[in-house]
Design a protein that fits this description.
single chain, Aspartate Aminotransferase, domain 1, Aspartate Aminotransferase, domain 2, 2 domains, 4-stranded mixed sheet, 17 helices
């Protein structure tokens, strides 16, 4: 059930939320084109959104970053200062079409008026009080999430990795609660090749890429990595009786935009039910409308015991959420887990605005339509390119797998006013634009991609 549907049940929501529902929706129109670096058309800013020109140049800011910030990110040499809709602007005023949405975070783009209204209002009245006290926006967002999903209860945190940490703890606690007389209840986990569940120590232990884990070993023991989609091996491991939970992404984002099959997920559901272990869906990147379904698992008609969320839920503010069934929630007691900042009024009011807009059937239908349109367009324009192995994904989470590194192409696109990401082993172009993107902007993105592809020839020659 969507937030809008919940409203029809006479549930009392905050004035900020009710007011946000009546604000005029803005159609992010495309203005007249200007010329980008590689003679590819890009769009000029909307008339009411001028680039924010910073007093410092990009080179100065980048130099300061190298002095003062721990070097954990290999950043692109772009200093962004403002944005509107699907457009971003750097400190010199250059414009970029954003197909990254902050790594699948800014689902409503930049500066969505309903989101801004929700955040501004809530910041003006109450931003944070801790979880020692009740607050209205937290309860309202939890109602919306429960009403629109399989879940009965919600735990809030601050990020995707924190959501998966909580899911790990909840899974182990559930096994101890369910088998109080067993001296050694099930404590192990199954995860899959190409998976990514986060960078904190528990979530890191569930992440398959060794180069993420090796510098920090020993990480949490008891995790077995199986081939994504290998039903037989997974069912056999579940039947061993040692598994507390199976963690799986219905669609792998960081891993390279790989989708599970319905048969695989249904087999996991049945095996977990038979063995008494939990099925955890990590929808941190693929959830909340990105596939054209509110939750990615709805496309498979398979439902988990636990689902972890984060990236788009508060439209750019830090939030995570763990959605659980009543049987899981019953195992959790006061003090078992917690967080100082989690689910504060500011981020929850933002989350209500985001969930309300994305959960409407017309919005989700538009994501499906635009996703199929763009995928078909890419197949038509790039499908026969010698470097392209596969174009996959659905909704607005799409991957272009290459037989060479995607980095030169990503760099060339950035220089031409288009921002895209890599994924997989660095050979996949990952496309996760704001869900509000227009077909005209998708046309422009495809044009820039096509014109930048020859840069791969130079890499091969070198």
């Amino acid at each position: 059930m969507s937030c809008a549907a919940l409203l029809s049940l006479n549930i009392s929501f905050s004035p900020a939320f009710n007011r946000s529902l009546t604000l005029k929706r803005t159609n992010h129109s495309v203005a007249a084109p200007t010329t980008a670096c590689l003679n590819v058309d890009v769009r000029a800013p909307d008339s009411d959104q001028k680039p924010l020109i910073h007093e410092k140049r990009s080179s100065e800011i980048i130099a300061d970053e190298k002095k003062f910030i721990v070097g954990t990110y290999a950043r692109a040499p772009v200093v962004l200062s403002s944005g509107k809709g699907c457009k971003l602007y750097d400190v010199e005023g250059r414009e970029y079409l954003d197909l990254t949405s902050g790594i699948a975070v800014n689902a409503l783009g930049h500066g969505d008026p309903d989101w801004v209204a929700a955040v501004t209002h809530q910041a003006s009245v109450l931003a944070h009080v801790s979880n020692i006290y009740y607050t209205v926006p937290q309860v309202e967002l939890a109602k919306c999430l429960v009403g629109s999903s399989f879940a009965d209860r919600v735990f809030f945190c601050n990020s995707g990795t924190e959501a998966n940490e909580a899911a790990i703890k909840f899974s182990r606690k559930f096994q101890r609660f369910s088998h109080p007389d067993e001296k050694n209840p099930s404590v192990e986990f199954i995860a899959f090749t190409n998976c990514f569940h986060g960078r904190t120590m528990g979530a890191l232990a569930l992440t398959s890429k060794e180069h993420y884990r090796t510098p920090f070993e020993p990480v949490m023991p008891g995790v077995t990595f199986l081939e994504y989609g290998d039903t037989q091996a997974t069912v056999e491991m579940i039947q061993s009786g040692k598994i507390a939970a199976v963690f799986v992404e219905p669609i792998q984002g960081e891993g390279g935009i790989y989708s599970a099959t319905k048969e695989f997920l249904k087999s996991l559901r049945t095996a977990c039910d038979n063995a008494g272990c939990l099925l955890v869906f990590d929808e941190v990147q693929c959830g909340l409308g990105r596939t054209g379904f509110l939750w990615a698992h709805e496309a498979y008609d398979v439902y988990p015991d636990i689902m972890t969320l984060a990236k788009p839920l508060a439209g750019g503010l830090p939030i995570g959420a763990v959605l659980v069934t009543e049987k899981v929630a019953t195992a959790i007691n006061y003090g078992d887990h917690g967080s100082t900042f989690a689910g504060n009024p500011l981020v929850c009011n933002a989350g209500i605005a985001v969930l309300d807009k994305i959960s409407t059937p017309s919005f989700l239908a538009s994501v499906s339509e635009k996703g199929q349109y763009f995928k078909d367009l890419l197949i038509k324009k790039l499908g026969q390119n010698s470097y392209v192995k596969e174009i996959r994904g659905f909704g607005l989470i799409i991957g272009i797998e290459l037989d060479v590194s995607a980095s030169p192409l990503v760099d060339a696109c950035q220089q031409s006013g288009l921002l895209v990401l890599t994924a997989g082993k660095g050979n996949v172009v990952r496309i996760v634009p704001p869900l509000i993107i227009s077909k005209e902007e998708l046309d422009l993105a495809a044009e820039i991609l096509v014109k930048c592809f020859p840069v791969l020839d130079q890499g091969v020659k070198n």
